[in-house]
Amino acid sequence: ISLSSEILALAQDMRGDARPIKDFCDKAVGATKLIASGLGRLAGKAAVRVLTAGALSAADVSEELANSTATDAANLADKEISDLITGARKRRDVFESFRKALSDLPALLADKQDCSDDDAASSGATKRPLIFIVDDLDRCSPPYALRLLEVMKHFFSVPNIHFVLGVHLRQLEASVCAAYGSSLDARAYLQKFVHFTVPMVDTPRHLDEMSTRKYIAHLHGMLSSRAAQLDTAHLINDFLSDYAIHANLSLRAIERIYSIVAVCLATLPQGRLAIAPLLAGLAVLKVEQPDLYVVAKTGNLKYDQVQEFFGFSKRAGEESILGPDWAGSWWRFACDRNAPELVVNQFSSDLRRFGVLEREKLLPILVDRVLERFDPEAK
Questions:
Q1: pLDDT per residue over 330-371, tens digit each?
Q2: Per 3-state DSSP, what percentage of the chain is helix, strand, and coil (rounded to 5)?
C-alpha cells in the first residue's frame, strides 16, 4: 500500500490531468484494494501467492496458514479460503492489467513535448525507467521489511520499474533469521529479491577525497563558526578526523559525535577547562562505547581499555608528548597511574591553573562540567 501510494502521488503530481494517468490510477486503486484485503487475512507470503499466482490449491493455502499465528488460522473460515481460490482468476486479471499499466508509466510521466497522451506509452523515444529508492529497510520491523520485499518482487516486478535498496545487508539477513529461524540461509534467501549489490566502500585515490574526510570538513566548518574556543575546535577536529578513518566510522556516528562536541563548545565559556583529545575521545566513547564512557565518568577507566580502541601507541608519552603521541599522552595522563614522568610533570602544571590537582579526577570533571552540563539524558 505504501508503494502504491507513492506511485499514485507521483503520477498525479506530474501529469494528473492526462487520461492515461487517470486510467492507471484506477487500476492501481483496484489492485491496492485486493492487496489490502488479502494481506489482512493471510500471512504475507500466502497473500502474495493467492493474489497473484492464480494456481493455488486448498493444500497450498493450508500450508501457508500453518506458518501464521494460531489465532489467524482459527479465525479463517473455510468459505473465505474457497472464495480466495475461486476468485483467483479475477484477481490475476486485475494485477496483470495493473502491471501492464505500471510498465507504461515511465513513458507517460516523461516530458514528451512532441507526443500526445495516447501515443506516449507506445513511443520508443523515451526509455528512461522509473526508479524507487528504498532507504533503511533494515531498520524496519522484520515482518514489514520482508513483506515489502515480497510485494516488490511479485507486484512491481515489471519492465521499466526498478528499486534501489539502501540497506545494511547483515542487518537485513538478521531480519530474515528473526522471521524464519536461524537455520535458514538468509543470504541465499535475499538473493531472490536482490539482483546485484554495490558495496558502499570508500576507495579514493587520496585521503582528502574520502567521504568521511569531506563530511568531517563540513561539520568542522559549522562547528568552528559557533565555537567560542576556536583553537580547541580545530584540535578536536584533528583528533576526530584521524579516529574516524582509523575506526571506519559511519557518517551517522560521526554526526552524533560532532553533535555532542558542538553542544559542549557552544556552552563552554572562553578560558574554561577544555582538553581537546579528552573531550573528543569522551564524545566518541559516549556514542561508540557507552559502557566505557560510564567507567570514565566514575574515574575508573584504565589506559589499556582505550589504547587499542583509539589506536594510541602503548609507549605514548615516554619519549615525546608532541606529534602522534600527543593525544595518547593525555589519555595516559588521565588513565594510567604509571604514566611516564615526562607526561605527568608537563600536564600537571597545565591543569593547576584550572584547580585540578588530582589527575585521576580529570575525566569525571570533564564529563560533569562539560559533556553533561546541558545533557537532559545524563544520569
A1: 999 999 888 888 888 888 877 877 777 788 889 999 998 888
A2: 65, 5, 30
